[in-house]
Amino acid sequence: MSAEAPTIPLLTPYKLGNFNLSHRVVLAPLTRQRSYGNVPQPRAILYYSQRTSKGGLLISESNSVSDTAQGYPDTPGIWTKEQVEAWKPIVDAVHDKGGIFFCQLGHYGRVSNTGYQPNGQAPISSTDKLLSPQIRSNGIDVAHFTTPRRLRTDEIPLIVNDYRLAARNAIEAVVVTGCYSYLRYFDTYHHVGFDGLEIHGAHGYLIEQFMKDKVNDRMDNYGGSLENRCRFALEVVEAVANEIGAERVGVKLSPFSDYGEAGDSNPKALGLHMVESLNKYDIAYCHMAEPRMKTVADKVECPDSLLPMRKAFKNTFLVVGGYDREAGNKAIAENCADLVVYGRLFLANPDLPRRFELNAPLNKYNRETFYTSDPIIGYTDYLFLETTT
């Protein structure tokens, strides 16, 4: 008899709350800039279904929660009926292949300019400090920003409510089959909404602009102490969890990063405070960026670790940032994470879990086409592994 093949940690099953995952390789939320007019396009059906495996978890690109939440060209939203309707066939395609699909909700805050704002108004933020011009993630384009308008204390609940409404939009879509009455016990209905939501609290966007002390210079209940700076983030979590159920909610954090000039003087304390606070809401997962990823493009040697946060958080812990097959397997085997999130490798290898299973060569990604405004190039044209017999 042949020896039994060694177990590949990344390809072992995992139970994420109510969801049974067949492996631990997660599609990262990746900005793709192909949602023309802020509406997801039909080609996204193919893009996401290509990267779907039965029992695999996918996290969508960030969806703006309102018309003030935009900051990049051609990124999707989920605040209008048209946007919700456009997402339905995409979600259906993922479900048809047995995937679990979470929708990321975001707000860019001051990482924006008047060109993306309704009526050309100033972007909103925790602060009125201007963000310096930034080189985009493709390493080529330079983004310029407008001086933001500091939100008044009484306006903050309105932004929290934008997240709540977006959460409802993403989850509640239902198509009824059979007899069209909810009152009949033998009726069936097929849920075509997203399975859950990830609140984007990372990468220098609005929630981080409140959390990080190098940006937040407020003097009210949302500024100063660590508890005050995290108040907005936790109010969003509470509102969304109350709306759709905590078991459907994840949160992405990057306490150690300096995206968009949003750094913090004590990132470990920030990370620990957030995961301990999230425990009170019993949400499905926390998704955290590795300390070595200081910005989108820079991977650095770093003495910091996510292990204290991993140990403090009581539910599923996802890690992201510079992982390959070997590092991902090690993270699972050593209990440093429950799931490992892959961005650029999954972008370029739609069948990444299969390639990891076979330890097959990987396609190389082309950074220059990450954000190409084309429905195919750099989007759905990466090749699958040839079928082997």
Automatic annotation (TrEMBL):
Gene3D superfamilies: Aldolase class I (3.20.20.70). Its cofactor is FMN. Pfam families: Oxidored_FMN. Keywords: Flavoprotein, FMN, NADP, Oxidoreductase. The keyword Plastid does not apply. The keyword Oxidoreductase applies. It comes from the Eukaryota. Signal peptide: none annotated. Belongs to the NADH:flavin oxidoreductase/NADH oxidase family. This is 12-oxophytodienoate reductase. It comes from Quillaja saponaria. The lineage of its organism: Eukaryota, Viridiplantae, Streptophyta, Embryophyta, Tracheophyta.
